[in-house]
Design brief:
The protein contains 8 helices and 16 strands. It has 2 domains: about 120 residues, D-amino Acid Aminotransferase, Chain A, domain 1, CATH 3.30.470.10; about 160 residues, D-amino Acid Aminotransferase, subunit A, domain 2 (D-amino Acid Aminotransferase, Chain A, domain 2). The two termini are about 30 Å apart. The structure holds pyridoxal-5'-phosphate. Pyridoxal-5'-phosphate (PLP) binds next to helix 6 and strand 14.
């Protein structure tokens, strides 16, 4: 089945979908994006993703290409036309097309918009049951990791290092502090059963899944601290886990080939994973409301 993409006002077979060579997203990574999980045909945390998209656009002073309602119409169409039940929607907004020059283009340059969808959501359950390996990689990103830009080269290099080490993810650290992972947020559980994750600052992406899991954890009675934590603390933690749109809640069982605690997935991570899955299973058409 051929995929259908939305590109600047048109729905096209993905193979025919093209962007301009002078699009600033292509030349300067001057664009932002979102990845949204689709579960039983409806989106997870949709309002949170749209809010973050609008924030990213604002931070970079890229004009909003359309209203939330118009964008939602397109996202629904892309989900429908691609027959996505379990999958992901990808949306990207770039500053637009202009002759190559570093400053923002002047005049009436329209932002470019691409929306696509893919089948397959989250890692297989068997992966989470066993837990995953991660490696520690120095965080080489810029100072505004809070903006979800398409400038992902340091993330891609870190993920490649993980892939070469047969690991699921790269845990990013800077000056001894674990910020997050290459495409997910990082958490640990202390010996006192306190959940810890990096606070929302410019050093991390405020993961939408992080926010949902944080609320879920507090509602379930877990104590959660948003504070910086070191790589050493992570390596000696009772549990380590990751959260993200394409990760859900994922227990980490080794860091740099050394086991976390006894090397088995932690009970808190597995409990939160189940709660997150129950949240996904409970989504209805109201999930589209923004
Ligand atoms: N951190 C980084 C660097 C990411 O790229 C992502 C997702 O792509 C996340 C965290 C998790 O964010 P979310 O839960 O919104 O998918």
């Amino acid at each position: 089945m051929s995929h259908v993409a939305y590109v600047n006002g048109r729905y096209l077979p993905q193979k025919q979908a093209q962007v301009h060579i002078e699009d600033r997203g292509y030349q300067f990574a001057d664009g932002v994006y979102e990845v949204i999980c689709v579960w039983n045909g409806v989106p997870a945390d949709y309002a949170g993703h749209l809010k973050r998209l609008n924030r990213s656009l604002n931070e970079l002073r890229i004009a909003s290409p359309m209203s939330d309602g118009a964008l939602t119409f397109i996202v629904k169409e892309i989900v429908r036309r691609n027959h996505v039940s379990q999958g992901t929607v990808y949306m990207q907004v770039n500053r637009g097309v202009a002759p190559r020059a570093h400053p923002f283009p002047t005049g009436n340059v329209k932002p470019s918009v691409v929306v696509t969808a893919k089948h397959g959501a989250g890692p297989a359950e068997s992966v989470a049951e066993k837990g995953v390996k991660v490696i520690a990689v120095v965080d080489q990103r810029w100072g505004r990791c809070d903006i979800k830009t398409v400038g992902l080269l340091p993330n891609a290099l870190a993920k490649q290092a993980a892939a070469e080490g047969k690991a699921f993810e790269a845990l990013l650290h800077r000056d001894g502090i674990v910020t997050e992972a290459s495409a997910s947020n990082a958490w640990l559980v202390t010996k006192d059963q306190i959940l810890v994750t990096h606070p929302v600052t410019n050093a991390i992406l405020a993961g939408v899944t992080r926010g949902t899991v944080l609320k879920m954890a507090r509602a379930a009675g877990y104590k959660v601290e948003e504070r910086p934590f070191t790589l050493d603390e992570t390596k000696t933690a009772k549990e380590v886990f990751l959260t993200g749109t394409t990760t859900f809640v994922m227990p980490v069982v080794t860091i740099d080939d050394r086991p976390v605690a006894n090397g088995a997935p932690g009970t808190v991570a597995l409990d939160l994973r189940q709660r997150y899955r129950a949240y996904l299973d409970g989504l209805t058409e109201t999930a589209w409301n923004v």
